């Protein structure tokens, strides 16, 4: 969906009544997927705490506080309401790991993209070659990779590792963009955001939750590939709405709403409104494509797409309540 000057004028004239930022999002974001929560959420939260402690990732009080504000097991429970307790635990551990990894990469990358290289190269070596870890983060990733291999088929585990490597590589793109004297435009921002979303590594876990592994012709069908892209984009753009105030305060640039604000030199309120329009169009396209292909899908294929839809739903309900984004929910109408 492109955003023309006419569309901006339309939003400005006929747009949304003044409200707080959280109310603006809740009133206008299209969310056809109802709230669901995995009954093993509390168990997964305890497991995440133990797992992070085992690998020393919460020895730093700042990291422990970040995890408390982020609630990774809650996000996993919203995204995968039907997962069994074992698979939910892997997903929750992975979400927690990625939040720690992403925050550390962002901190290093802001100072210099080159500072990221040892961290990223260690991760790629573990994921691609089974290389030995040299840091606590690497040790945690090695263990996470082990959990995935034990639960998933070899093909699913290979897809998990491939998608995870793309996420790792994307963090270097983000660091280069953050270091540029001129912030990137909305198109380039979306391209980088798709790399660092960290959503697609979870799709092999969605597949592993199904009765059977998807056959290649179903998994790689052009419509299925498009559904994958749409769901990952929608899932990560929704938190961008809720994190806009936080990212603006911290000088972040790879955020859909902030990219619209820079491109159109408009208020954050209008930028969020434009971002909502793009997200709504993405979710509606996802719905339409799924409805069209669903009669052709196997039960496992349909369940796999439902798992992708779960990420759209889960990221929405998690973003609305998580302490990490409390600033946005409290922002007044004058933002």
Descriptive tags:
335 residues, mainly alpha, 0% strand
What is the assigned CATH homologous superfamily? Farnesyl Diphosphate Synthase
* Computed CA radius of gyration, to the nearest angstrom: 19 Å
Structural class: mainly alpha
CATH 2nd-level architecture: Orthogonal Bundle
What's the number of helices?
Answer: 17
What is the number of beta strands?
A: 0
Largest sheet: none
CA-based shape: globular
- Would you state the CATH class? Mainly Alpha
- Please give the alpha-carbon distance between the first and last residues: 25 Å
Helix content: over 70%
CATH topology: Farnesyl Diphosphate Synthase
N-to-C SSE string, H for helix and E for strand: HHHHHHHHHHHHHHHHH
Quaternary status: single chain
- Beta-strand fraction estimate: under 5%
Overall pLDDT, averaged?
Answer: 91
Low-confidence stretches: 5-15
Q: How many distinct folded domains?
A: 1
Protein name: Sesquiterpene cyclase
InterPro entries: Amorph_synthase, Isoprenoid_synthase_dom_sf
Pfam family, one: Terpene_syn_C_2
Organism: Streptomyces djakartensis
Overall description:
The structure is a single chain. With 335 residues, the protein is mainly alpha-helical. It has one domain: Farnesyl Diphosphate Synthase (Orthogonal Bundle), CATH 1.10.600. 73% of the residues lie in helices and 0% in strands. The chain is built from 17 helices and no strands. About 3% of the residues have low confidence.
């Amino acid at each position: 969906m492109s955003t023309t000057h006419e569309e901006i004028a339309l939003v400005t004239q006929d747009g949304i009544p003044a409200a707080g930022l959280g109310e603006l999002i809740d009133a206008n974001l299209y969310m056809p997927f109802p709230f669901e929560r995995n009954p093993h959420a509390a168990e997964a939260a305890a497991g995440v705490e133990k797992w992070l402690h085992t690998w020393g990732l919460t020895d730093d009080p700042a990291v422990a506080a970040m995890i408390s504000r982020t609630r990774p097991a809650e996000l996993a429970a919203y995204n995968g309401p039907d997962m069994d307790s074992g698979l939910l635990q892997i997903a929750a551990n992975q979400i927690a790991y990625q939040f720690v990894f992403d925050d550390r990469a962002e901190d290093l990358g802001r100072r210099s993209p080159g500072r990221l290289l040892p961290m990223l190269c260690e991760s790629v070596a573990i994921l691609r070659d089974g290389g030995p870890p040299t840091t606590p983060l690497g040790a945690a990733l090695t263990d996470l990779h082990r959990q995935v291999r034990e639960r998933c088929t070899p093909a699913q585990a290979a897809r998990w590792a491939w998608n995870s490597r793309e996420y790792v590589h994307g963090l270097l793109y983000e660091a280069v963009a953050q270091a540029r004297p001129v912030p990137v435009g909305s198109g380039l921002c979306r391209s980088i955001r798709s790399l660092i979303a960290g959503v697609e590594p979870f799709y092999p876990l969605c597949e592993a939750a199904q009765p059977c592994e998807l056959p290649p012709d179903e998994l790689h069908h052009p419509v299925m590939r498009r559904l994958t892209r749409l769901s990952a984009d929608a899932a990560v753009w929704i938190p961008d709405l809720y994190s806009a105030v936080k990212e603006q305060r911290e000088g972040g640039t790879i955020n859909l709403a902030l990219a619209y604000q820079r491109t159109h030199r408009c208020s954050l309120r209008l930028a969020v409104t434009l971002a909502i329009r793009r997200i709504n169009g993405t979710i509606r396209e996802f719905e339409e494509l799924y409805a069209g292909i669903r009669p052709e899908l196997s039960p496992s294929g349909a369940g796999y797409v439902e798992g992708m839809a779960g990420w759209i739903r889960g990221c929405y309900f998690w973003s609305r309540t998580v302490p990490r984004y409390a600033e946005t929910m409290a922002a007044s109408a004058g933002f």
